[in-house]
Amino acid sequence: MKLLRHTLLFTSLAALVIGGCDEGGQDVSTSAFAPQTVAATSPPEPDAFSAEDTSSPDATTPDATIAPDAVATPDAVADADAGPAEDVVADTVEVSNTPDAAPDASAPDAPNAPDGTVTPDTALPPSTGPAVYTKGEIQSPITSSLAQHLRDIADTAPNLDDHVFMKIGASGTVSSGFLTCFSGSNIDWTAAPDGLPTTRDHFLQGDAAGDDPFSRKTLAAKVGMSTGWAISGDPSPMEEEFDLLQPRFALIAYGTNDMQLGTTFQSAMWGFGDKLQTLIDTLIGWGVVPILQTNGARLDNAEADRFVDSYNAIIRAIAQSRQIPLMDLWTAMSQVPGWGKSGDGLHLNTYSGGGCIFTEEALDYGYNTRNMATLEGLHRAKLAVVDEVESLDGPTVTVAGDGSPQAPWEVQAFPFSTGGDTSSSPWSEIDVYGACSSSNESGPEDYYQITLEAETSLRIMVHDQGDVDVDLHLLDETGTPEGCITRAHQLIETTLPAGTYTLVVDSWVDSGGDVHDGSYLLAIVECHPDDPSCD
Q: What does pTM read for this prediction?
């Protein structure tokens, strides 16, 4: 039985938080749900083409490729449903682990438990605190506090249309295999969760600039484009689509093309995280409830596939830090034969009887699985926002710790994704990590504890924006600056023996005495066994 049919693959527990407090130790009523500052969108930037999906079970197109230590090259052929791709040139984003000389100097800024669908008359008791998002759940939890948060977003723009959603993405969003079948009558709900037909009817009533939202050809999705394209220009493609539709919800799917925008998959992560945060915060500022999606496996490129978990950890951290819905496509597709891919290992396939056939047989295909999971994500968001269901899921898991040197937050499993804010931390115990660097880190800091039962290879990533400049410091079991093993501005890749370690996210102080504290994303993943970066 597939995960999408609501059996739980609980392989790890990630993104753990303290019930009742956000990652900075503040009361959730004032900080846990506050969107981060929206940064100005970057200038228009061409994207390397790497089409994500196709609507034919046997369709094949050239693989998305990237040459080691060289600029990625675009594919020559686009998704048949989406039209020709444009010529593009990839960006280069260099990552440095040297001491800071200026804010962001070393890496410049680029602009539930799934056991059934909860209906209004079966809503769970209230829960408090920010919701925890774990890998292995197709739909992120919607607790009472998160449901209220989503309604609070909607309340900032009460005139938006509750019957309309907008689509933002690339070829997988443009493809006729994605959602358009809900506009027709060729639908079989046999294995679908309860409530989805009603939600489909709800959105069919929406006026998406003369179409229904399912069949609407969005201006905010284009073959070969990445996150930066959607938010670039005046107006940007996303803004144009928003102005036309005035939607209550937005579906966002990015990551595959973004992976192609650096000299390596690693170097492209920073621009992706920055731009996706900007995109999401812009939507929230408009009163739109975003629904994010992770990416499935990359069977077309073994090196790219080794980084999918890292990109998904960034997506999960953004969704959890903003407390918005997340649909985990990776988990959904992990239970589909061949990851729901067509012959090229990159694009999704579709059941021959149609993309909205939800039988056991049909759910062995990519678009059928994705369409059902996406409609379920819309269904859950609609229950919380439009139907005002108090809670769809129970209380989230909590963990001991308060982010202090004496009681650091415990990283109990990987991948670990979270958001924090050093400006709200009362702790400023370490000024210089003498064993690693002479950089001035006298600003406030957050503490995490990592306990490993065996030798483990880890990729530890921190993302900040604007003038915020926080750095990573990995300490041995002593938890002291003299026990510093390594430090980095954004990225630590290392293999550690079994033991207990302290990870400090510390705020840099420049030569003028300005403290560059503030919000950040933290993601920790186990490196792929074949990834030499973490040796």
A: 0.79
